[in-house]
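Issue 218. Parser rejects a valid record. Input:
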Amino acid sequence: MSHLHIPDGVLPLWLWASGWVAALAIVYLAGKFSERADVRRKVPLLAVVSALMLIAMSSEIVPIAYHINLTIVGGVLLGPALSVIAAFIAEVVLAMLGHGGVTVLGLNTLIIATEMVVGGALFRLVVRLIGRRHVGWSAAVTTVLTLALTTTMMVGIVAIGGGAAAASRQHGALDPSTLKFENPFKAGVFSSGLFRGGEGGATAPSGAGSSSSSSSGTPASQTLSIRRFAIVVYTLGPIGWIIEALVTAGILGYVARVRPSLIWEGALAVAEHRIPDHETGLHP
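Output the parser choked on:
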């Protein structure tokens, strides 16, 4: 939900250029910080998390036009530095596949990196408050709060830079002209647009989802004012937040049971258990 799918040529130069500069700066700082630890052994984890986020973000729950991000999962498993790098990797690939323009890649990196870093930090704070036994609840609460924050961040960017043109978006079952729900399953339940140039094969991705365009341009019913755009987002958004909260709770709860070190020690933890010497049988 917090991913900007605005095509090139909509946002003003100063806004998307600032996003690029800020994104490259934080990616550079994240890379320098990661050099202090042994990152090589975490490259497979970084690759897996980035790939999972990429697949999730390119797939859509059609009735509510929502995309599962898995960003909270990534933020908890990777930590802040690697989360920034993972966000950039995922956004570069998504931009190349048509999920938003190249110009908004920087802004998208900032939004998703914020989602991962804040989500990871908030998760640990909630765990301290309610204990490690309740990983699922901690993950669910963290997901809802974090997505509410970054969705507001996304709406703010659209309001600042795009106006009605940037607010045009796929709105799922909610008709933006009447703010009434239509048949939620007329377009199916689930759509994957990983190799079709955007969600559901849309030809002109925009806003926080994608909208189909006729030969004469974007239909009037899909051109939203900022106010209606916000109403649509905050009407459908909480449904998606709850779905993602359940998914995140399930994944992190499972990881906490089978591989707790991934959650509690951090991706860049220096400590590493070594296999006992096979000749002496002694631990180093």
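Fixed in the parser; the record now loads. The chain has one domain: 13-183+220-264.
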